[in-house]
Amino acid sequence: MRNLKNIYCSVLEPLPGCGITAATWDVATDSVVCAFGPTKNDILIQLKRWVPISGLQGLSPGDALHHIASWDAPCPLPYLECDKIVDLHFFSDSLTSCLVLAGGDIVVVREEPQSGEDKIEIVGSVDAGISGAAWSPDEELLAITTQADTLLYMTRDFENVTDVTLSSEDLKASKHVSVGWGKSETQFKGKRAKALQDPTVPEKVDEGSLSHHDGKNTTISWRGDGAYVAVNSIDSGSRRVVRVYSREGSLDSVSEPVDGLEGSLSWRPAGNLLASIQRLEYRIDVVFFERNGLRHGQFSLRLSKEEMESWGTDIEVSWNVDSTVLAVCFKDRAQLWTMGNYHYYLKQEIALPAASASQEAALFTWHPEKPLRFAVGSEAGLRRLEYTLAVAAGPTAPPNDYGVVAVIDGKNVKLTAFRIANVPPPMASHDLVLASNVVDIAVTGNGSTSCGTRIAVLHSGGICLYEWKLQARLPSKPSLISFVELPSSDIFQSMNQQIVFMDNYRLLVWLTGREGSSLSTFVTHANTVRYDASLFQRGVRSLIAPAAAVREIEASSASIFLDNNEVRGASSLFSKIEGQHPLGSTKVRLRTFTPRTEVVKYCGKSSPRADSYGNGLTDIDYGHLIAFGLTDDGFLYANEKQLARNCTSFLVTPAHLIFTTTQHLVKFVHMATVDELEIPPDTPEIDERCRSIERGAKLVTVMPSIFALVMQMPRGNLETIYPRALVLAGIRQNVNDKEYKKAFLACRNHRVDMNILHDHAPQRFMEDVALFVDQVKKVEHIDLFLSQLREEDVSQTMYMETIRANVDQHLTQGEANAPNGAEHSQLSKVNKICDAFLKVLEARKASNLQNMITAHVCKSPPHLEAGLLEIAKLRKDNSEHAERAIEHICFLADVNKLYDTALGLYDLELTLEVAQQSQKDPREYLPFLQSLQESTTLRSQYTIDNHLGRYKKALQHLYELGVFDEMTLYIQKHSLYVQALDLYRYQEDSLRVILRLYAEYLQRESKNKEAGIAYEYLLEHESASECYRLAHLWKESLSCATLVPLPQPQLHDLARTLADSLVETKEFFAAATIHLDYLSDVETAARFFCKGYFFADALRIVGLHQRYDLLGSIIDTGLVDGMATMTELLAECKSQLNAQIPRIRELRTKKAEDPLAFLDGDVNGGVDVPDNVSLAPTDTSTAAGGSLFTRYTDRTGTVGTNATRRTSKNRRREERKRARGKKGSVYEEEYLINSVGRLIDRVNVVGEEVARLVVGLMRRGMRERARAVESAMVGVVALCQGCVKEVFQVKEQAAAGLVDEERGRPKGGDGVLWHSVDESQARRDAPPVKDFGKLSLLSS
């Protein structure tokens, strides 16, 4: 789909009396080394360098040529009129030219000879003469064929390394077998036709006969990698043979015989094909061979019989360096052919000065590094040309983005409007046939009144203007509306270059000739085209067609790209002709020359829209003019800013810059000012602006109106995709413009979640629900939208907006006015939308009742009752519509749930209709419904609620029926005690019966406290006391026991039982109270007070009951035992802290010095062993041992069946390891930190006990013991307070938390390490350490 467009042309005329006979490229200086002579009248050979001068074209010969050397070259062979240059090659690294002459001499010319070296030296000679020569692509081998039918290999130092004889025995090297695939001989032609003929044997077998125009020449061509070389020569004077030799000189294959094969040969650098010429009786074909010598396709050169006998008698072929263009050279012209989808297109024909009858094919040489730069010419002159591949496409701005693409194929122009018909190449919607070969094509630019309908075709004979009316429902064929020949002045005796539309009425044409470049305008009016004006302008490189003139991008006028990388408006340029003002100033500059350029004006959202094409665009603001340019080496620029360095193609739309990369991605850049252009990362999985495409795909055209992007694959086939970026951009724009129907259809066609219609602008959508219904109209479409609603905000998840610009003012105000508060936050998004639709549809119930039912059903949870009530109302007015509504609601919801819901409405007729839409057996529901019909209303309602499991409502019906006995059974069956108590709250007798049943139920359920309260309410104190005892409520139990009243022995037994249970739970204070109050055991009560460190209460009861004998036996003994126990506990705490804190410091030091060794536990003894993830290629070893990164996470990164996975069993095993905290493991530090935390919690608990112990010791005169206990407690508390910050890393933990929130989880191996440390060494909050209040009597 790409055409070749000329971007550079320079002309060199020959020296007086001496024509150009050879040329080659110097890649270092990008100049051409030319050879002049020898001729039969002058044996002098002159070597000159044609140097390009920036910004100048059409120079005289002396201005551009630098003399290198000259010498006489007499021909040593008597049968040659004069010597001839067979091959000219230039070595840029040594500034050396090598000339191979037909007479046999090999001459080296050194531009800068070293001492002892000659400037001109004959380094070798072949006495028999040389028929062909070619240097290998790596410039290390020279292949030479001699007139004696030998093949020689010479090194760079011209040492002969191989000498091979070309003999007839070589033809036996290849035994070709053709099965005739695709041939007419293998096609079925009837049952009896050629029944006995072998289908693999063709009717005519080529013998390799020579063409009558064969030049008897020999051609050598190397493969692109230099591994093989092909030689096309005549064998035994009767047959053309292509021999393929390896680099070592061994014969690899020989071509099959082909009649009319000529001497031209070129091996495609990609290596798969060799191209040559076959001359038949009525046509000339370019034929292809494989390396094994077999034919592999061909194409015709489309020459008439007269052309074959005139300028088509001598033909040469040559592939360019990247194998994309095949040059076919004739006597007076050269043609450039490209292949796409197995069809060869004639893209350009370069005319040369008229050739004499004896002149050979045109001189042609490709640039060795730049694929579309070459030099072409003849003895009458030489041209340096450069082309670029460009798509001749129509506008890309809605609504005129019809996807018009024009493809050049010789005299044909293939037109396709991809928005109307997606026709695969080489076919096309329409073919335009012209009188001569096409040079360039232009389609009307954006903003014109007939945008996308006018096509200007520039060819060697003039300009044809076509009109294509695409706006019609059935577009007609393009029609020719005007033709103009180029004026016959000297300006136009030149090479046609490019053509663009300046506006809807003016064409701009760039021509290049000997006198320089000229720019000419042509005016179209009333279906005619006339010449307007011309201007000579040096330095022109390319014409830039106008870009999109739409909402945010206005078109500049057609611009001229200059050599100094500046862009100038054509309107300001031609004002010089019209005499208005001088040449306009530079508007924008790029960093370098870009062959493919588009200039647009970004106006922003607040800028006014252009009224029509060209209004106010001649004086453009520099700050908003953007020139997008792509260089041949993949650099994409916006003005002087580099956007990408791996770009292969790009397009511009009103909303996006779209480009493809060498990583096989297509990226979408939101249009903005140059500084705000944001290139998306290579993340097609998470970013809508980036998408993976087929390898090597390039952009052809884009149609934002239908969200389509057309790409061409390397083979030439087309693929149309609908990228999410284009689709979502169109949907968002439609929502902003309140075109909800277009947005809805786009979501429906491209499978986009329809929640975006609301989530993109929620407040606006809620205000425009009525407008949405009016635009969408179809009931089915509204149902589809409602049925896809869900709570997720897709604008923040799957379709997150990627434009960083601020939300427009309307949306900002709408969101600011949105309701806030807890009530709004609890409101479901789905329910809110459904309620809004119900409110709007209420007035349209006649036409949109189905939508109302859908809105009810689609709520979360579904409001089936409301939907069925709407149907019930409709059933009274129109039973037929009600039946359809029931079918619809049964389609939306589970019919079983609908059956239960309808039954719950107590509408048996509606229930029956719903049941008939289900798969239920009528024998299941008909008897049931019939029994309900025969029952009373209350009994029927009770039966329905009991059937549906609505037991509370069924209980209410039983209460209304007044069947108490049945009701009590129902209460016990379904545990409805609370509801029954509420119903009988004013009926005391019934209430007590139900409450007793409830108390028994609570006792069975082990809810003893509630059961005891119920029994006590019923004045059943004995049962209440037992329930309280089971609930360990000793006060309530003893209270009820005294109210029974229980006999004294039973009461004592109950008291002892309660006291013993309290002692087991270490509630010593309560146990002592029971012994004192109910058992009158002062000694036991005092002992329990001392065990709980309540020494003040113990001393109080001893004094109260005058049991002074207990002071020594109970009180003092309890103080000594408590002091010993507490001292031992505090000593253990201190020793634990002194042991664990240094160990924590040691572990953290090791982790800081070598984190990986710390995680691995140093299992290798300090030896540096790499992670086996990088050593083991199989998942077996990875699964078995894991790696340093996966040892403690069980995440090996493999999906093999034998891989270790994080199963629940493995997690439990890991948790046990963590709980043990084995020394040396990764969990040790975590275990120690948790241990210190538990110790601090224990110290906080015993602080109050120590304080009571110290006071008791002082009251009993044990001052030193009190001092010792207090000192130990103070020391432990101080040690705990001092270690909290270090152990729990309070400051570092807070800082790390901030970093993690900002940075998140790292990637790769660092992420695995981060996860391991985070999971296995999680910190808890530092526990507080309570201060211990010292007794002032003990203060030192």
UniProtKB/TrEMBL annotation:
GO biological process: tRNA wobble base 5-methoxycarbonylmethyl-2-thiouridinylation
Domain of life: Eukaryota
GO molecular function: tRNA binding
Subcellular location: Cytoplasm; Nucleus
Domain ELP1 three-helical bundle, chain residue ranges per copy: 1109-1286
Keywords, comma-separated and alphabetical: Cytoplasm, Nucleus, tRNA processing
Associated pathway: tRNA modification; 5-methoxycarbonylmethyl-2-thiouridine-tRNA biosynthesis
Residues of the ELP1 TPR domain: 941-1100
Feature: compositional bias, Basic and acidic residues: 201-212, 1316-1328
Protein family according to the UniProt entry: Belongs to the ELP1/IKA1 family.
Stated role: Component of the elongator complex which is required for multiple tRNA modifications, including mcm5U (5-methoxycarbonylmethyl uridine), mcm5s2U (5-methoxycarbonylmethyl-2-thiouridine), and ncm5U (5-carbamoylmethyl uridine). The elongator complex catalyzes formation of carboxymethyluridine in the wobble base at position 34 in tRNAs.
Name used for this protein in its record: Elongator complex protein 1
